[in-house]
Design a protein that fits this description.
Two copies of one chain form a homodimer. Chain A is an alpha+beta fold and about 240 residues long. Helix content of chain A is about 45%, strand content about 15%. Chains A, B: Keywords: Flavoprotein, FMN, NADP, Oxidoreductase.
Chain lengths: ~240, ~240
């Protein structure tokens, strides 16, 4: 174990920040660290919108179901999967983009996530905390309109950044032998291991909430997975030119 | 700038490795660092298959279009988006999963990418090099069969790991002002900036290939984006229970 791995292992979402601002120069450094991540066939399909405008921020709080830290964080970035720039690259060479493939949706989305994880780690290495905000997909059409996103661009998630004003515990993860398999997928024993893990998650929530929340991982997951999951997504993405074939 | 950010900025894909093996304990440490990444609503939807079997490796070389380092790397991991484990969590609580939503496809895919980026950074911090292998999606159905992947699981990409036996240059990225925008998407000036960037990419390839390859970024992208992109993906994913609605 070294200092980098310790940093990675110490990640927890931060949702309360001090007033200390993040200089623009630092934000540029973070984004450049994001750009340094691997990119599928060099497509560089991530565009970041830094949202400074107070009114836009308030609207993004609403779009993400009232997560106030989206408005309060010293910096808020929206990470977009961007094939519009690839369309421009085609136009610059008198070529016509053949967009709409599911494969392209995957590569662009993965590009964005690798990029954002670098930004997060760079921020944490400077003593900041971050929280990913998938909640902006609650009202993804409104978010896209707010940020003037053209076709072939979609907002994957937001990221709150700032200096932590809280110190939450690291959440226990699944035992590694449920997650790492040798040579083939094999879920023998998963059920028993998850049942054990469920106990440690229950304890984590009990400790953290002073006994108010008592929930295992599998309970939490099943409560969520029986519901519809943002059923507007597919239509929205198709309208933006993704997932057509 | 600090040592972590320098590490992030020094990333380049490594495709040639020394014989030095990676102990299983180290691989477990890397995967646990992967697990420490943020996970959407705690779903922990990433499963990693470590492929040791020589025959499976050879077949994976074929599946990824003859990338020999997939067979040669001291370790090869396949990162899978896994909702099968969430189905199990539902079953453990007598609930029925409501799968097939595009939203779930996004969260699972993003989970995998954040996880893998942590694994990569942890590996690089220990002096290893990595290469993401999206090429396994060339023959994704065959890869899934080889690894016995059940429904609600798909292989997003592979990752070669090992100690570098080459020292390629870092590839120049797009200028930060093309990638980072203030308050709204705005591509004014992108074309001019990309035209400038094109020159530096051409130089990079010229230097790296001793003048044999002369290609700008926009040329490379347009050459690729006019083609079909793995048109089998959508059907395959639907058969696995993804992107149905």
């Amino acid at each position: 174990m070294n200092a980098v791995i310790e940093l990675l292992n110490s990640h927890r979402s931060i949702r309360k920040f001090t007033d200390q601002p993040i200089p623009q120069e630092t934000l540029n450094t973070l984004v450049q660290a994001g750009q340094a991540a691997a990119t599928s066939s060099f497509i560089q399909a991530c565009t970041v919108i830094q949202v400074n405008d107070k009114d836009t921020r308030s609207q993004l709080v609403e779009c993400s179901g009232g997560q106030v830290y989206v408005g309060e964080a010293p910096a808020f970035l929206v990470f977009c999967a961007d094939m519009q720039r690839l369309k421009l690259a085609c136009e610059m060479n008198d070529a016509e983009i053949n967009a709409g493939f599911t494969e392209q949706f995957i590569t662009a989305t993965v590009d964005v996530a690798l990029f954002a994880q670098n930004v997060s780690i760079a921020a944490e290495s400077l003593g900041m905390g971050v929280a990913y905000i998938g909640g902006i997909r609650n009202q993804i059409a409104r978010v896209s309109e707010l940020l003037d996103l053209p076709e072939l661009v979609y907002p994957v998630f937001g990221l709150c950044l700032g200096y932590p004003d809280q110190n939450p515990e690291v959440k226990p993860r699944l035992p590694v032998d449920v997650v790492l398999k040798q040579d083939s997928y094999n879920d023998n024993g998963n059920k028993e291991t998850i049942a054990e893990y469920d106990k440690s998650v229950r304890e984590y929530y009990q400790t953290r909430t002073g006994g108010n929340k008592e929930m295992t991982w599998s309970e939490q997951m099943s409560g969520m997975m029986i519901k519809e999951a943002r059923p507007h997504m597919l239509n929205f993405l198709k309208e933006k030119g993704f997932l057509l074939k």
